[in-house]
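We now fix the convention by which a protein and its fold are recorded. The integers have meaning only within a learned vocabulary of local backbone shapes. A complete example follows; check for yourself that the lines match position by position.
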Amino acid sequence: MTVSLTRPPSASADPTEESGLIRLCELGVVPDALLRAGMRQLMRQRLKQEHAHDVERGMSALADLVKELRSSPIAIASQEANAQHYEVPSEFFLAHLGPAMKYSCCYYECEATTLEQAEQAMLARYAERAQLADGQRILDLGCGWGSLALWLAERYPGSQIVGLSNSHGQRRFIEATAAKRGLRNLRIVTGNVADFDFSDDVPAQFDRVLSIEMFEHMKNYGALMKKIAHWLNDRGMLFVHIFAHRHLAYHFQDRDGSDWMSRHFFTGGTMPSADLLLHFQDDLRIVERWWVDGRHYARTANDWLEALDASRETTLPILEANYGTQARLQFQRWRMFYMAVAELFGYAGGQQWGVGHYLFEKRGANAGDVA
């Protein structure tokens, strides 16, 4: 969730556009248990709409989506998203995310695993699966609040770490944190990946590019991966972490008053299927892939929600400074968002939606001769 989800839910949307029930939920008068039950019902409807139990129609829909994505720009609704969402201060997230400020799925190795431990466990998996080594030049594409970029800079002091963010606020936060930790091998640049390119000042030619929960905000994966391939050296590799459904792919669309998630958090976004990226291997080819059970994301979101509730006395004044009388509404929207994430990825025991990890190499590279 490193693009629009690092920004607040829309404060500008007309509340009359929401359904009556959603307005009651946003006012906080609907008990959490009932709210979660309603979310699970919407998920059952989504599976039906996307032909989850009709293989022929589902595969036809996926083929149509792939064709549509190939003819789309890299990203859509960027200006609209910027108009709807302005940045929440880092203090809001500092008050309830884990110590690493990892704003994406974490990995829980056992029932006793804490959020802090789960952050570190997932970061370690990235390093292992991306085949990282000290001395490499590494790009964190869509670096969010810097959880990965800062971790890489500390773990690999001989490496050059570059983070690309579309947020000046996140850039300032990461740079200030790096300065406090005495990290001199990390540089953050700002830009929209759809039209950004590196220059002589910050050259490309990376050994590794890692992207954590950014591809979900893109459309034309072929064009995006062609751009990334250009940024890699000949033996470079791309590691991608995306949330996904096991076989369905669909757009997040704000069609009516019930499309709350699309309106406030995922304008222009895509829910990938586990194999969606495999349809875009013109410039990069798959080396290995992994699947992370959705229950890991459910626990992550529930931990965020628990911490947000515990930090109410701290976080509400932060929101009041930005939203004034709308602060309580925004606080409840964040609560609803975390509940929605927990219910989505926990649905059916975590066996419908989950997280995919993918390692790609440039076409023509020797798979047995990795940097």
Q: What stands out?
A: The domain at 4-362 is CATH 3.40.50.150 (Rossmann fold).
